Amino acid sequence: MQHILYLHGFLSSPKSIKAQATKAYFEKHHSDVTLHIPELSNFPSKVESQLLALIESTPALLEDGLKLIGSSMGGYLSTFLLEKFGGKAVLINPAVRPYELLQSFIGEHENPYSKEKFEIVASDMEVIKALEASSLSAPERYKVLLQTEDETLDYRLAEEKYAQSQLVIEQGGDHSFVGYENHLPAIAQFLLN
After folding, report:
1. Which end of the chain is more exposed for a tag (fewer CB within 10 A), N or C?
2. End-to-end CA distance of the chain
3. Exposure on the CB side of residue 143, measured as CA atoms within 13 A
4. What 3-state class would DSSP assign to 71?
């Protein structure tokens, strides 16, 4: 049995279209894989301890190296975990410097999936910055999917950071990564081989 950890983005959830497409694909084509899709806390100050507790309580995740799929902020968190524990990761339109982007999100929010209300505060930026992997120890362990018309993140930041990784850059698209489900066979192959 192999284990894959899927990390959703900011203001997202395990119920997101990408998370559910990933779940359906692995259930149908890789029944020997257990896909873990935790509901990440909306509070940045709680995410690191949540992820470390999950890994500690699920030793199978580390058996032959972490296998991660991370979207947007989940891509940033996946990079943090991979640099800490080793393994392989597929990142979809990953956030590279979310602590800069989230400056404009300081204030109150409601998660559109869970309806949980929460606040982003200025000190959260330091918390998020502390999770930054400033360099990649093994760039070949990353496969990075980018679309050039991402309206939320500048894809060129990820193109630069993951330049030595396996990059797939598609013209057009958007932050949700249009046509994501078409990449699932290649994602599975990268993580499981």
Report:
1. C
2. 13
3. 18
4. strand
Q: How far apart, in whole angstroms, are the C-alpha atoms of residue 120 and residue 153?
A: 19
123 Cβ contact partners less than 8 Å away, ≥ 6 residues apart? 45
Single-letter amino acid, residue 191: L
- Give per-residue pLDDT as tens, 95-147: 999 999 999 999 999 999 999 999 999 999 999 999 999 899 999 999 999 99
The Cα 90–Cα 17 span in angstroms is 17
**Helix (H) / strand (E) containing 51:** helix 44-57
pTM: 0.97
Those residues with Cβ within 8 angstroms of residue 44's Cβ, 6 or more apart along the chain or in another chain:
102, 120, 124, 127, 128
DSSP string, 109-131: EE-TTT--EEEE-TTHHHHHHTT
Let me know: does 109 contact 124? Beta carbons within 8 Å. no
Q: Would you say 37 and 15 are in contact if contact means Cβ atoms under 8 Å apart?
A: no
- Picking from 69, 70, 65, the residue whose alpha carbon sits closest to that of residue 87 is 65
Amino acid at 155: Y
